[in-house]
Amino acid sequence: MLLRANDGRVEVLPRQFPTNRGGLCQKGWTAADLLDHQDRLTTPLLRDRPGGELRPASWAEAMDRVVTGIRTVQEGHGRDAVAVFGGGGLTNEKAYTLGKFARVALGTRHIDYNGRWCMSSAAAAGIRAFGVDRGLPFPLADLGRAETLLLVGANPAETMPPLMRHLADQRSRGGRLIVIDPRATATARQADLHLQPLPGTDLAVANALLHIALTEGWIDREYVAARTTGFDDVRRTVAGYWPAEVERLSGVPVADLEATARALADAGSAIILTARGAEQHAKGVDTVTAFINLTLALGLPGRPGSGYGCLTGQGNGQGGREHGQKADQLPGYRRIDDPAAREHVARVWGVPADTLPGPGVPAYRLLDSLGAPGGPRALLVFGSNPVVSAPRAARVTDRLRGLDLLVVADFLLSETAALADVVLPVTQWAEEDGTMTNLEGRVLRRRALREPPAGVRSDLAILADLAARLDAPARFPTDPGTVFAELRQASAGGPADYAGVTWERIDRDEGVFWPCPDQDGPDTPRLFAESFPTPDGRARFHPVTHRAAAEEVCDDYPLHFTTGRVLAQYQSGTQTRRVSALRRAAPGAFVELHPDLAARLDVAEGDEVRVVSRRGELRAPARLSPTIRPDTVFAPFHWAGAARANSVTNDAVDPVSGMPEFKICAVRVERVES
Amino acid sequence: MSERIVIVGYGMAGSRLAAELQARAGDRKVTVLGAEPHHAYNRIMLSTLLAGKIDEPDVELAEVVGHGVDVRTAVAVTAIDRAAGEVCTDDGDRIGYDHLVLATGSRAIVPPLPGLDPLPERVVPFRTLDDCRRILAAARGARSALVLGGGLLGLEAARGLAARGLDVTVVHPIGHLMERQLDPAAGAVLVDTLAGLGVRTRLGVTATGVAADADGVRLDLADGDSLAADLLVLSCGVRPDTALAAAAGLTVERGIVVDDRMRTSDRRISAIGDCAQHDGTLTGLVAPAWAQARVVAQVLAGDDPLVRYRPRPMVTRLKAAGIDLAAMGDATDGGPAEELTFTDPARGTYARLRIRDERLTGAILLGDNPAVGTVVQLFDRGAPVPVDRRSLLLGRAFGAVSATPAASPALMPDAATVCQCNDVNKGALVSCWRSGARTADELSAATRAGTGCGGCRDAVAGIADWLAGAEPVEATR
């Protein structure tokens, strides 16, 4: 986006850029509304005693309280008793510094972030198959040239509208768009073919597509032999997924499965993209793997205009997961349990490698262990609102309440901040410099356009101040440019290598694609053309099998429940619910159900309904729509309080990625008698 | 000592059980004995193999060797010594078991016709991978084939051979094809469909004898006619392989009789798949065999002592290039029920559905029925059918929200949303026009309509054109 400052007022305008191509949705247009919003926090807040009210405080008082609280917990319970929770919206510089702060200033292994609930399944599957996780291994514009584009559990028409310009491009060139989604979403309704499977059966659908490709002789045997390993096990596994069996399981007609497989196989170029619909399951990694297997068997990854990719969910979803916010990770997408990686990063940080803690635990496990025996007793939250966004949110809220110290850095009083002992007001996007990395692995600039309001500090300044007060053995710069220079060094040689990326180069070249190891060398818009970054240079097949959702429907909870976004709101809604234009467009939560189901439940449009699972309930007005399956109900997750969708969701997690099963659980729906 | 489990049969049921056991924790030694010399394979893919689209390795199923599972192929079990708890093999071995599972499958029936004993080289049943190899060997250089039996398997074989370019005729003793699943009307549509694929049919006539020599095979019919071809495929049904169980004194009727936990009359012996008879029923399909394998694995692993096999309603599915057939339940029971039908014989489409108490009790769908996936699922799960029954016949084509814009902007209400991304309605565009915006670009710049996904730019331009026509621009602004 393009920003203009007029007499201190910031205006947002769309910018002609290769990714958004001049498009901007309402959330972008109105992003500046929050800069001077009446709810903006401009002073630290403190709670003097549990159950007391938050009151304004000075920075000195607030920081004293934070440091005293941290020290008390550390002395009583050890360094791992303090935990950090980050966010996928933080700039690269903040995400990097947060990871360093946890490992060096706090010396805790407990850091993870809300991106665990976003892209972690696709990330793990990508690393397992390709040796690297970059959302798209090719520029976004390649979508426009794909003859066949398959979207799985993705609804960009509502979640990422400017992306639709590339899809329109693709269609105008005669390309085919196929969408797999249990709901006939705004995106699915534009598709040439829409497969509407029962939630939780995407993996079986993918295996059936590969089964068909096998039986029709559409496998690229040459590619499989030259560039991959492990195909035989996958071939034998998908032999058990014949289309009629998967039709019965998923409800997708055999003819549609065949048409999809054919469209992918006979296209000169084909791309498969997954998003949260396929990934937010207790079998999310395997589901993504099944689609990756399909692309590999068809010889797509590395071929121009073809391959597998995943769509990012957060502003800095890609960059935020590369530089150490993850429990098992060091900057540059290095593994924290890799001795060479530890040596390298410790040298950049100027500390002995053996002082760096080992891997922590994934986000939900971390939050669920708060205040429990052996679990952390203090938590520092940056850029996240788990009270609304965590699965089984009522339980997570209880865990947060049980902490000795909860510190939240935010620029609005989010539902999580409202529970905190200390709230620290921070800068917003227009008030800070830095970088973000988009879904293409393209590093982009964020530019400060105005001074922050008095009383507000940057996240970097807060972390540096805390580090100094905690006598951290390393330096914590507050200037984003200096932090980025250090990040470049720390990432050098890692999978996500930023060593050759400079802000000047970003400005000059419309962003820089990682890996970019050399300042004078090329960046990498397209990966995998020659080989894969695995030890033997080959991509790896993994056999994956379908299994039931962690919670299946039964007599007491006979309906499937799934969650997602609406066009005019974002994430936990802390920001977008406060923008009047967005509130007008999407004023409140709702429960979407099929008219047939509504008739059976004696529910009319607008009736207040209760969605009940084994973990909790949500209440919202019914919205009737023939676009959803009659055995499934949907609610958006942007709202808090009684309408909180995550009161209902399941906290079962994927064994590999730690991704919770947001996208399917068993519920019953009841009309609330007025 | 770890529990010793012996599985007799390495087909789709036996291999699945081995995989189910392997996936479960516990200290046990699983031995799988397969009489056929090859790896477990997917029988459902044999007709595709027959059609020449795939090779033998492509029909192999996932391997389960290792991790406590020992698979021995080309080993036939000759006897069960229940007193000793051992099975005897044709290589003279005796293998002890704590629990024995029979997954011996079924054998093709060779009809008692003159000329079939011994089976001539050019006459082959269609059942196993070895049968498939023999058919393919006989089909090499052949120009024509006969298939005796117009059930599901016979038609799959016929289609596969026709796909190889052979001239194929199916001979069936009943008046219409697949009479266990179809009504005569559907059978008639299917005959036309098959004709389009190069498969002829002779219905309602029994075979009386076979004569075969090195040059060809002749099938004599009861109506006095004789058909000649290069090979004859027999598809006259299957019979559960119960010899081992019967010899060991287990209760055997048409199949090996089992209870809800798949146990035979001996508590230490179970049976699953085609050889098992549960609640008076033989299954003959893969899905129930796999469900039974799962039950036995759960029982043996002790993870659910209350687990019981509950048969699900059977769905017969024939899907190949040019054929799309689904049949389930009883679509012809004649009892009181709601009935939906649709017939378009010229396009090979036929649909008949029966509904009772808002549930499907049976359905036949042949040809292009876009709702087939929904119908199969509703039947399988016993879920209520849609209030608007037409969606069962027309599928997604019906009831979906149309994305087409109103015919003319004049007909759109002011509150109609034009730009979803930026929440702009027609009224906002009209008032923007009245404030001086005169082109689509100016309307977009002022209202943000069309600046998100860009999908409504044509609609914005249409409104601009309409406004220009309806409200002439004033000379001065």
TrEMBL record, chain B:
Pfam families, alphabetized: Fer2_BFD, Pyr_redox_2, Rubredoxin_C
Known pathway: Nitrogen metabolism; nitrate reduction (assimilation)
InterPro entries hit by this protein: BFD-like_2Fe2S-bd_dom, BFD-like_2Fe2S-bd_dom_sf, FAD/NAD-bd_sf, FAD/NAD-binding_dom, FAD/NAD-linked_Rdtase_dimer_sf, NasD-like, Rubredoxin_C
Domain BFD-like [2Fe-2S]-binding: 418-463
A single GO molecular function term of this UniProt record: oxidoreductase activity
Domain annotation NADH-rubredoxin oxidoreductase C-terminal: ranges: 315-369
Cofactor: [4Fe-4S] cluster; FAD; siroheme
Superkingdom as given in the UniProt entry: Bacteria
Keyword hit for Cytoplasm: no
Keyword Flavoprotein: yes
Residue intervals of the FAD/NAD(P)-binding domain: 4-283
Alphabetically ordered keywords of this record: FAD, Flavoprotein, Heme, Iron, Iron-sulfur, Metal-binding, Oxidoreductase
Protein family (similarity comment): Belongs to the nitrite and sulfite reductase 4Fe-4S domain family.
Protein name: FAD/NAD(P)-binding oxidoreductase
Species the sequence originates in: Micromonospora globispora
